[in-house]
Amino acid sequence: MSTIRILEPTVANQIAAGEVVERPAAVIKELLENSLDAEARRVTVDFSRGGKAQMIVEDDGKGMTGDEALLSLERHATSKIQVASDLDRIATFGFRGEALPSIASVARFTMQTRPASAPSGTEIAINGGKLVHRRDHGMAPGTRIEVSNLFHPVPARLKFLKSDETEAAHIVRLVRLYAIAHPEVGFLLREDGREIFRSPGNAPLLDRVREIWGRQVAEEVTIMPSFARPGMRLSGLLGKPGVSRGTRQDLVTVVNGRPVDSRTMAFALTESYHTLIPKGRYPLAFVFLEMDPAWVDVNVHPAKREVRFRDEAKVRNFLIESVLAVLRARADDGLPAATIPSIALATPLASGVPPTVSAPVSSSGTPAAYLPPSAAPAQPNHAPAVRLGWRLLSRLREERAVFETPTGLAILDIGAAHQRVLYESILAQFTAQKPVCQPMLVPLSIELEPLPAAVLKERMPLLASAGFDFEEYGRNFWRIQALPAWLEPEDALAFVRDLLAEMARREGDFGRPSLAYDALAKIAVIKARRKGDSLSDAELMELVQALFRTVQPGSCPRGRRTYIEWTDADLTRRFG
Ligand SMILES: Nc1ncnc2c1ncn2[C@@H]1O[C@H](COP(=O)(O)OP(=O)(O)OP(=O)(O)O)[C@@H](O)[C@H]1O
Ligand SMILES: [Mg+2]
Prior knowledge:
Elements: H1 9-20, H2 24-37, E1 42-48, E2 54-59, H3 66-72, H4 99-105, E3 108-114, E4 121-127, E5 130-137, E6 142-148, H5 155-158, H6 164-181, E7 186-191, E8 194-199, H7 205-213, H8 215-219, E9 221-229, E10 232-239, E11 251-255, E12 258-260, H9 263-272, E13 285-291, E14 296-297, E15 308-309, H10 312-330, E16 369-371, E17 391-396, E18 400-405, E19 408-413, H11 414-432, E20 437-447, H12 450-458, H13 460-465, E21 469-474, E22 477-484, H14 489-505, H15 513-527, H16 537-547, E23 563-567, H17 568-575
Helix pairs in contact: 1-4, 2-6, 9-10, 11-15, 11-16, 12-14
Bound molecules: adenosine-5'-triphosphate and magnesium ion.
Residues 30, 33-34, 94, 99 line the site of magnesium ion.
């Protein structure tokens, strides 16, 4: 029978390290956070062999005296919180007092540190948790920590490390995230002495993204002005409509300076883009949320990667409303607002599209306190935006058309543009509860299987509000006495069958009116017959004008781009 004993500190630290330090990037994360907590203005990160051989983080922050440095290596030694209630409002990255002793217990660890007030610094070396030496060390104020031979004291953990390339990729991503989250701090990242990125502090966010994420990403985003609600503020950069990614890799969310995984935020962002990017893909965004620390719980994950909000719904709604306001205002990205006077559409667009096409859809959703910073572009403008000055140059293989614009050259995808116009026209009718109907002189009749018949009965009010008039005249036999104006009578039977099948399959989507309308409009649009090749030039121009009256002219309801534009500057650059 074994006796119960208290573990030796080194063993206890190694166990704690299992949670804190899962891989080299986790070491860098802890060291970086300490540097930021120490109010560094400049941080340099070096690593080699994916961090397995060596990692160095050097800062110009507050530093520590020799005694503080020794104490910082004791478990639960922290300068950041004192009493349990401090946990309710954590404003620093660190609060456990676990990172340094954990790291020092599973590697060779050398810390050099000096506060500005001391004439010289201290060096402390530790190997596998055992003190090797402590001595004076001449240096500039700040702290430099070197970690090498990670996990050599605990070989079992070595085998869980991935290839050097994979571990390096984790490190690079992590440092990028912290550099974006802290634009006020200068960052330099090097692998084997080779610079990966360098970003001086205090650059505007867009420049920062260009330096850290690269030129291409910087061109794919648009500035989100500041939005405010009591106790919350939101700002950042948002991907332009139509720009999407297959993973969440470029969906960066920062809460109070901490890069976090927040399901609530990721979901709200993806939701806001749902008609602008294809299903199953993710938007590109750099979103900064600042809020009272008492409203966020960072103490829910051992590596503090996740946060929880005291009021998740409030955060979600704030995000969706703000992002939608930006997207609505910027969907027509890239073109000067001055070229967009509003003109009325005198005649209906193409056959089957009613004049309601130009009705602006509700502009609600702008957060009450909207604070554009002085540098931000004009206020979101929800007035129907009709872009003058597009001149048709030529058709391109029937489904596309080339235009000269006041600022360059554009190619329009006629089908996608038509779908956007049709979709918003149908939605506008739903929202206004005023469907434009066409009564049937000779009612159409349709026989339905029991399941679709049951769906039809259940969804009758919804279908009526969309402009359908069904009458049952026998078991499973129905008469269609009126159709919405956007549906061609010859397409009606096939459309109704498909619609009922869809409704049976996606029951949940049709339960709430707003979702049901959206789903219905999307199905209608997909089923709509292609109009591209049959449009006259005049109809094509009307389509363009109608497109720029929609709320989101940049993409079709399924997220495909409606047009691509090259500005004169783009063209000049391409010609070199
Ligand atoms: N780069 C640094 N500059 C100045 N002081 C530092 C630095 N790194 C660590 N310290 C000091 O050492 C203490 C211990 O650091 P450690 O990372 O172990 O714990 P913590 O940051 O308080 O909490 P956590 O375990 O959550 O990170 C810190 O509270 C801080 O006072
Ligand atoms: Mg720490």
